[in-house]
User: Which sequence fits this backbone?
């Protein structure tokens, strides 16, 4: 179905659809469900915890024979060099074949990973970062538009312009992140030069997502302008749902919660109004909670429908 697609060749998945490696969320239940459905699940390692990585990695392999990958967030891992090296060494011992890097310079890991035969994609939100990563030797890029969830630079460019700029500058395969929840968004990303897509918020609102049901329902209920950017010092912002908490923080009426408190209060206990978890602008496009299998199947079906619709515009000779 995707013969010749470089992302599929690199990941060995059936479809070029990634699940974002979201902190606390992208662990065994969700990663294994996405991979088993034909997508490509990515295990997070932001917690910088070898015991967690070992436990979740082993659980994924026990749950499915489908391929999956691991994300290495440079900025967070390098804060503890001993744990950083332990995690990478352990992953290489497991014969991991695909890794994504993010939040920093991929050059820190590229050589050791590629010398071990690992395919490396780097997540970047800028044209400068894309060029730098390719120069460092990565095999592909995850191009994150400013509409994506989580930590963002206030000066980032949205996906429609960013994808075109990166496609013009580099030849490696691109995976589009930000604003994609279905086959329509996937087809648009392909038209702009991508060969795959990453979905985060869409998979947060899935049956297999470990977050509290209240948060899933809040994503489904969010309007098109339902997210807000809260300052995330130093020099960044965090995109999440526009809740009473978020609006109070923006007005300076209350202090921002540490992220670990948001995990406990929102992801575990479902306090939507008193917190604001990571959520992209794509929240306004999500209409229901689905299984990972339904999300993948519906996305692929819709993608080909959109491709057929566009192909029909071409005049017949």
Assistant:
């Amino acid at each position: 179905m995707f013969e010749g697609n470089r992302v599929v060749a690199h990941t060995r998945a059936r479809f070029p659809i990634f699940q974002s490696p979201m902190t606390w969320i992208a662990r065994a239940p969700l990663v294994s469900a996405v991979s088993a459905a034909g997508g490509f699940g990515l295990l997070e390692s932001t917690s910088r915890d070898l015991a967690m990585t070992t436990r979740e990695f082993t659980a994924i392999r026990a749950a499915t024979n489908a391929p999956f990958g691991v994300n290495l967030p440079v900025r967070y891992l390098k804060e503890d060099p001993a744990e950083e090296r332990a995690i990478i060494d352990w992953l290489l011992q497991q014969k991991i074949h695909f890794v994504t890097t993010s939040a920093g310079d991929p050059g820190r890991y590229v050589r050791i990973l590629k010398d071990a035969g690992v395919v490396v994609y780097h997540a970047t939100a800028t044209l400068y970062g894309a060029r730098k990563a390719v120069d460092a030797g990565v095999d592909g890029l995850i191009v994150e538009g400013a509409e994506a969830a989580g930590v963002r630079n206030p000066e980032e460019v949205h996906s429609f312009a960013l994808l075109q700029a990166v496609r013009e500058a580099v030849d490696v395969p691109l995976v589009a992140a930000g604003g994609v929840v279905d086959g329509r968004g996937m087809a648009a990303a392909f038209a702009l030069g991508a060969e795959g897509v990453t979905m985060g918020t869409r998979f947060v609102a899935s049956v297999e997502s470990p977050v509290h049901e209240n948060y899933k329902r809040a994503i489904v209920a969010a309007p098109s302008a339902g997210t807000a950017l809260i300052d995330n010092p130093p020099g960044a912002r965090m995109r999440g749902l526009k809740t009473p908490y978020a609006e109070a923080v923006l007005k300076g009426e209350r202090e921002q919660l540490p992220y670990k408190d948001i995990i406990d209060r929102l992801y575990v206990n479902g306090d939507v109004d008193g917190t604001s978890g990571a959520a992209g602008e794509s929240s306004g496009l999500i209409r229901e909670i689905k299984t990972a299998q339904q999300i993948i199947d519906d996305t692929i079906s819709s993608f080909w429908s959109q491709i057929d619709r566009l192909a029909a515009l071409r005049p017949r000779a």
Q: What stands out?
A: Residues 148 and 173 are 20 Å apart (CA to CA).
